[in-house]
TrEMBL record:
Listed Pfam families: Flg_bb_rod (PF00460), Flg_bbr_C (PF06429), LlgE_F_G_D1 (PF22692)
Protein name per the record: Flagellar basal-body rod protein FlgG
Biological process terms in GO annotation: bacterial-type flagellum-dependent swarming motility
Family (UniProt): Belongs to the flagella basal body rod proteins family.
PANTHER family: FLAGELLAR BASAL-BODY ROD PROTEIN FLGG, FLAGELLAR PROTEIN
Presence of keyword RNA-binding: no
Domain of life (superkingdom): Bacteria
């Protein structure tokens, strides 16, 4: 009897499903977070009778076979890169992306990572950095005595220094896009890294065709739909219980068989 093993694969798959849903709910208020869902595939089949097998001397064939599946497995967690809602903050260093694209972050080891979290700050040297202190590419430095900082929709950063009514242009924030955003690897700290699956990073100017725009004074909320997550959680719980019931039933059948004299 293979029911025990089959049901066990179902319970493990639903455990992974609950883990993914729990992570979504936990990050419901994380800036720029993108929810995920677990994806499953059925395992190989035990083909006890082949479809199309000859059933008589006259050449008739069996229209269906006897195929018993051996369970399920988790094949991936699919990230849903839909736009999150924009929340006003009135902070001139808070920026969000409306549309496609990621901010590029320079890591201490020389590599680059990518983020949708635009809650930036200034380093002691005046550089625009993330909350972890990582420099935001291309490494813009805000002058001392800056009284106001403006970032337009195309990412051009301008500073009003002292009493000078003419702003000083500091540079431009760019956005990076990927052919397959779902292929980015999450690193934690709201950072992602490129992989072979994501494709090479494509740097672009905000507002270009297929690229989002910069919104100063806003942060992007998580795209987690709490109601949907709770619904999915209940569904996963019921599926887990049904697999548990299948194990219990298989155990009772084996017990009955053992008692036959």
């Amino acid at each position: 009897m293979r029911a025990l093993g089959i049901a066990a694969t179902g319970m493990m798959a639903q455990q992974t499903n609950v883990d993914v849903i729990s992570n979504n709910i936990a990050n419901a208020n994380t800036t720029g977070f993108k929810s995920s869902r677990a994806a499953f595939q059925d395992l190989i089949y035990d083909s006890r009778t082949r479809e199309g097998a000859v059933t008589a001397e006259q050449g008739t064939t069996r229209p269906t076979g006897v195929d018993v599946g051996l369970g399920v497995r988790t094949v991936g967690t699919v990230r849903l890169n839909t736009q999150g809602g924009l929340m006003p903050t009135d902070n001139q260093l808070d920026v969000s992306v409306e549309g496609r694209g990621y901010f590029t972050v320079n890591l201490p080891d020389g590599n680059q990572a990518y983020t949708r979290d635009g809650s930036f700050q200034l380093s002691p040297e005046g550089e625009i950095v993330t909350l972890q202190g990582y420099t935001v590419d291309p490494g813009l430095v805000v002058p001392e005595n800056t009284v106001n900082l403006e970032i337009n929709e195309q990412g051009i950063v301008s500073a009003y220094v002292g009493d000078d009514p003419v702003p000083v242009e500091l540079g431009q924030l760019t956005l990076t896009t990927f052919i397959n955003e779902a292929g980015l690897r999450p690193l934690g700290n709201n950072l992602m890294e490129a992989t072979n699956a994501s494709g090479d990073p494509l740097q672009a100017v905000p507002g270009d065709p297929g690229v989002g725009m910069i919104r100063q004074g806003f942060l992007e909320n998580s795209n987690v739909n709490i109601i949907q997550q709770i619904t999915d959680l209940i569904s996963a719980q019921r599926a887990y219980e049904m697999n548990s019931k299948a194990i219990e039933t298989a155990d009772q059948m084996m017990s009955t068989t053992n008692q036959v004299k």
